[in-house]
Design a protein that fits this description.
Length: 171
Amino acid sequence: MTSPSFLNICARSRGFNIFKRTAWGKPHAYTGMVVASPDAFFFAIDPKTVTGVGAVIGGALGGAIEGLLASKKKRDKKKYMPQAVPLVEEMDLTDLSTEVTEHPEWPVTWEEGPVIIVPREAVQSLRTAWWLGGIELVMEGVAIRTATPVFKRKKMAAYLVDAGWEVAGWR
């Protein structure tokens, strides 16, 4: 049996946290999917959590205001990483390659919204432990902690190992 090309390794309702490694400040928490592949991690942020306020305003005041807010949001391109990290890209799902988004094993169900792409070359280490509550991905100056399902954490780490990643603490 072969491993899937893409696998969501987080509990969707819990998502992931992005930390700046040099600060003890509050992490940036996002709801979404963490899609692992042999070549990269894709942190797809659920667009419902990003545009929730705009949707309320749009419903109350009409589509024109929501359209203006959405176009401004698209131009401004909010940054989700607390600092620039070499090789890491932030983009909209609509700008992601169709080789990825149209792959039969691609698990993300929404068609647009922010995504952070972390290629293998940008990852300094991966680790898991019961006290972490998931799998932690460490890059230059930034760490992203993924909330994995409690009873599937080892299975998720095993998938990463099968895909060629080194994961500390998974056995």
